[in-house]
Amino acid sequence: MKKKKNLPKKVGTALAHVQHTMDKVMTWGFKNLKDAGASKSKKNDHKAKKYTKKGAKFIGAVGHSFYEEYEKLKGEDNNVEE
To answer: Is the pTM of this model over 0.70?
Structure first.
C-alpha cells in the first residue's frame, strides 16, 4: 500500500520540476530577447532589422515584467496556510 501513497507525491514532484524548468527556460529566453533588442542599431541596418530589434526588446521586457510579478505572487501564495 505504501507504493500507492507515494505515486501521487512522485508525480506531483515531477510536474513541479517540469514547471520549474519551463520557468527557467522562459526567463532565459526573455532575457536574451531583451538583451538582443538593446544592442545598438547601426546606421546602415535595414529597417526590418531595426523594427525586429525593437520588437525583441519589447517582448523581452514584457516577459521580464511578467516573471518578476509571477515570482512575487508565488511568494505571497506560499505564505497562505491551507
So the answer is: no
Q: DSSP class of residue 54?
A: H
1-31 residue pLDDT tens: 466 678 888 999 999 999 999 999 999 998 8
Half-sphere exposure at residue 78, Cβ-oriented, CA atoms within 13 angstroms: 6
Cα separation, 80 vs 63, in Å, equals: 26
CA–CA gap between residue 77 and residue 6 (Å, rounded): 25
Alpha-carbon distances, residue 15 vs 19, 51, 58, 77 (angstroms): 6, 38, 30, 18
Q: What are the cell numbers at 57?
A: 526588446
d(CA 80, CA 74): 10
Half-sphere exposure of 62 (CA within 13 A, CB side): 6
Angle at which helices 47-78 and 2-38 pack, to 10 degrees? Answer: 140
